[in-house]
């Protein structure tokens, strides 16, 4: 065998798996579709979109992927280190109630087991309470007080090295986390650039902790390498004799296909990546036993991205860490103050005036009416509001999430506008495109700071919400009748084949998911015995 385990994807699930398996003495190969990023090659702003957006067919080889579906616009990461390169570092433990709903309820004594795994993930990711509150956080705090929810305001838990108290920002220290085994860190300067990749060595991305240690322990990472097939080796339809894994280059159109053999596989390609891969493998007969539940119960964390722009703001609202604080608007709704770094204004192209009304044609008409009225009544102010330049410096993005139950489905299909290839498509009931109480809050906040509330134009035109937290579709359950993996992340119907990423999440978390993905993967890996005691694939 080329490897004991091949890990598909190097995000949260993939990096934790790679590190823990290497530590247990296995020979690990990590196949990652995205590129490797360093402070030197990260883009300075998102106007350098060829280094920001991932669309290799068009020559765009960045780390940020946007996939439009009928029901949702999904934003996700694609890099060595997965979503950690572009994520906003927020690392929150969800409420205990999430373990009591969804198909994973009752599969384990979650509330007894999970705290230890969360503690490990927090330690490995270097999570701390954010000490750097920027102007946007202070505005959110004042608005939360005004709303009567000031007591729920909190500084986020962030995977960022903020340095010892009293030391100036931007100071470099030897590895502060792993007893000298890890790389050095430079303390955070609060530039707000986390979602563009940290160019200062302060963000605790996976290539500086889990994946770094995995590589140091012997794991081999194959960047720009896409897994296109995984099938059991001849003679073992359940994979008990191992698997062959076929890869293709992800950034070049032709050539370079490779075949690897291994005893076990961890699929950790993120919710969308794993669904896409497993659907194709099931349909072409490579892994025909995958549960028909694949693609069911995909969750978007019931999310809405709105914001407030303050044209000509004296304060630079982009300062701080990307998500510096949050509060609970009500028992189900959670709002976080989010930002892009000054100069990274490209997202401003998607921002428009907040529009109420019922989704559909009427809302589009209302939006056009509002826009026309605003242009005629206050032309200068409207242009200052809608042009993208200065957007990051002048805007406070409100990331709103709800713990309410709701999901869609995904399957492969041919879009009418491009019937030549089967791609992932969403189906099911529409997801609400806005959270009315959050919109109300944005209006009040805008009034208080002399700004204008904003929403994403896609919400209005296409009645489609945006999310950076797509989860589920490969849900954890008691049997293949209810889900796709068991309570230890093992794919039903196969031996030695695991799924460790956001796709296994079986409930709406209501908070950012990466810490939970890490903790669940820590738990899954803790059930795999060390290399010398049991051969891989014999679970
Ligand atoms: C802008 C932004 C901000 C965010 N902020 C936060 C935050 O503050 N806190 C938080 O908790 N979450 C945040 N998230 C979400 C977080 O990034 C994801 O939930 C998390 O990365 C999911 O982890 P994962 O292990 O499921 O997969 P990922 O981290 O997405 O990793 C999967 C990897 O698999 C690779 N891959 C896919 N298919 C293949 C294939 N066939 N072959 C090889 N490789 C493949 C992909 O390139 C990718 O690198 C944010 C996301 C975005 C986009
Ligand atoms: S705020 Fe700036 S320095 Fe701090 S972690 Fe984010 S990108 Fe790095």
Overall description:
This protein is of the alpha+beta class and 539 residues long. The protein has 11 helices and 27 strands. The chain has helices at residues 12-23, 110-125, 135-147, 210-216, 270-283, 361-377, 379-386, 391-394, 436-449, 457-462, 514-526, and strands spanning 3-8, 28-31, 54-55, 60-61, 64-68, 73-77, 128-129, 154-155, 157-158, 172-173, 185-186, 220-222, 225-232, 243-249, 258-267, 298-299, 303-309, 323-328, 333-338, 351-353, 395-402, 409-413, 423-427, 452-456, 466-467, 471-472, 497-499. Strands 1, 2, 12, 13, 14, 15 and 27 form a 7-stranded mixed sheet that branches. Strands 8-18-19-21-17-24-20 form a 7-stranded antiparallel sheet. Strands 5-6-25 form a 3-stranded mixed sheet, with no helix packed on it. The longest helix has 17 residues, at 361-377. The model has no long low-confidence stretch (mean pLDDT 93). The structure holds flavin-adenine dinucleotide and iron/sulfur cluster.
Summarize the structure.
The chain is α+β, with helices and mostly antiparallel strands.
Key words describing this protein structure:
11 helices, alpha+beta, 27 strands, binds flavin-adenine dinucleotide, binds iron/sulfur cluster, seven-stranded mixed β-sheet
